[in-house]
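Standup notes
- DV: blocked on the single-chain target, sequence here:
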Amino acid sequence: MRIAHITDIHLRSHIPGHSRLPIRRSRTAPGLLAAALDDARRRGADLIVITGDLVDVPEYLFAPERDTARDRLVWQRVRADYRLVRKMLDDCGIEWIAVPGNHDSYRVHAEELGSGPFVRDVAGLRFVSFWDRESTGNVPRRTLTERERFDSSLLDPGTRPQVHLQHFVITPRLDEGYPHTYAEGEELQRRTSDSGRVVLSLSGHYHPGAEPTTIGPTTFSVTPALVEHPHPYRIFDIALDGGLVGAVRHTQVDLASDAPARKAVFLDRDGCINTLATYRHGPEAMHLLPAAAPALRLLRDHGYALIVVTNQSCVGLGYVEPGTLEEVHDRMSELLADEGVTVDAVYSSPVAGHHAVADRLNVGDEPKPSPVMIKRAAAELKLDLSKSYLIGDRASDITAAQAAGVRPILVRTGDGRATEQTWRDALACPVVDDLVAAAVEVIGGSEFGRAKAL
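- DV (later): unblocked, structure below
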């Protein structure tokens, strides 16, 4: 029996924008899932197992008492992404089982992918699925009907060896920075192993993954996230001989190619891509500058990755909730998509210095003029800074670019004209009228190239 285990896909196709953490390549996830399914088919997998976070549902949709027209539109797109996943699984030609995770909508998952059977027999093995949830403090728990299913599976009088499927981690304990392991993880591990019935227990949730470990007759695996480089999944081979189980063997498959690092253009947001009115406001205030979409198309057509790096101290100052900022970025991506443009990632810093309303909002990525966000993007997205540019409208943008080793360009939109007047002698970089002119500067174009782009 050969099982292909895929987890933490965080797919966004119809849903606008990106995962809150840019290292999660949500917009490339449809292609990653297609590649994993195709690879599993070529390797002769008998079953596809997905343990959660199939779709990256925006967190702001789960806020209580929300039901705006925009919410309803985004929920339609969430449903469309689940349907996309369902079609890909149905079309792969391999039987599949999928359980939801904490970034999924359990309701839409059940409606579009099905909610059962929670116990399924496949090729001599009994697969038991658990739809556990996070509890207080984001700590995973196994309670209510999921607990009852666990109890009954361990008392099952049948002779079929079992495989347990859940999103959250049973073992090892992986709680540094975020509670990935069940509150009752030690008990779940002990009872699973002591039962003698479970040969394999598959989890996701912890994106770096953990090496499979065998305790008694049970192999516990925390498979790494497909959505993050090097885009892995695992193959498990279970030998069955007359109902007896031999060794459980695994192979990790990394789908990432050996492609060279990409050149990129880093872009400030407010005053460069959109009007300054967006700062401290919600998605309704997001309006693109006229040059934004043509410029980004031109850069994309010339092979540049497009990375937004933006200081958003409005969060640290208490004007905007993190979820509202996520909505604003999704709205920006939605407007750009309407113009046929997709950015690769959005990095933002909420740091507000000693004016922050809480200590927790004065930690994390340092804002520009620090190069931290640029360097983090380069490491996470495999970007070549020596072939890259940054376009912005403030001196802090220029300083950050120079510190990171990328070439800066100042635009006169937003605060650019004031920056040009104040810092004229210290800028040491090209100054152009707008984003299209900056794009032409990047690609080494001419006035003819500018007119063609417009």
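- Follow-up: Residues 264-453 form a domain with the Rossmann fold fold (CATH 3.40.50.1000).
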